[in-house]
Amino acid sequence: MSTWEEKVHKVTPYTPGEQPKNKNVIKLNTNENPYPPASSVKRIIESADYEVLRRYPDPLASGLLQALSDSYGVPKDQIFVGVGSDDVLAMSFLTFFTSGERILFPDVTYSFYDVWADEFRIPFDTVPLREDLSIDKEGFIGKNSGGIVIPNPNAPTGLDAGVDTLEEIIRDNPQCVVIIDEAYVDFGAESVLPLIDKYDNLLVTQTFSKSRALAGSRIGFAFGSRKLIKYLNDVKFSFNSYTMDYITQQVGIASLQDRDYFRMRCLEIINERERAKKEFSRLGFDFPDSKSNFIFVHHKDRSAVDIFNALRENDIYVRHFDGERTGDYLRVTIGTREQMDALFGFLSDYLGEG
Amino acid sequence: MSTWEEKVHKVTPYTPGEQPKNKNVIKLNTNENPYPPASSVKRIIESADYEVLRRYPDPLASGLLQALSDSYGVPKDQIFVGVGSDDVLAMSFLTFFTSGERILFPDVTYSFYDVWADEFRIPFDTVPLREDLSIDKEGFIGKNSGGIVIPNPNAPTGLDAGVDTLEEIIRDNPQCVVIIDEAYVDFGAESVLPLIDKYDNLLVTQTFSKSRALAGSRIGFAFGSRKLIKYLNDVKFSFNSYTMDYITQQVGIASLQDRDYFRMRCLEIINERERAKKEFSRLGFDFPDSKSNFIFVHHKDRSAVDIFNALRENDIYVRHFDGERTGDYLRVTIGTREQMDALFGFLSDYLGEG
Question: pTM of this prediction?
Answer without folding.
Answer: 0.95
